[in-house]
Design a protein that fits this description.
Elements: H1 3-12, H2 21-24, E1 46-50, H3 54-64, E2 70-74, H4 77-86, E3 91-94, H5 103-112, E4 121-125, H6 132-139, E5 143-146, H7 151-162
Parallel strand pairs: 1-2, 1-3, 3-4, 4-5
Helix pairs in contact: 4-5
Length: 163
Amino acid sequence: MGEADRQKSAQMSTYDPKRTWRETFDLHSIGLVGNPQGGDMQRRKRILVVEDQPDSRRIIRDMLAHTDYEVTEVENGEEALAAIAKQRPDLILMDVQLPVMDGYTATRRIKADPALRSIPIIAVTSYALDGEAKVAKAAGCDDYVPKPYSPRELLAKIRQHLS
């Protein structure tokens, strides 16, 4: 690997809020988005982002802006349940610490509904304590990503659950 390749690799693995997502990642080259010419006529996959912190929502929004996913954002578990009733998402990115209704309570309610339990839920949380992944699984989350996270890792998990 030459010096230019090492620099490009370092750029692709580091999030810098001063750079746009497109400048940070070439999503097409790493296989995380489809044909840029739009040859795929299937419905876009819907992702519901449940996050109360505006900065965290912006990071996820920027990360997903250049993908083929349709993104809806809400700020708490109660709003998540209302959004799901309006339009069923294909995947949910769920923060845990939320006002009104926390992410684990919302997840348990979603998974208790036979019509919704197949929706994959990825807990994306700053709770990075030992055993937190087990708590997330016990609540019904299908996966767990601690903050701060690697955007590449989160995108790979999204893609894995939507494939």
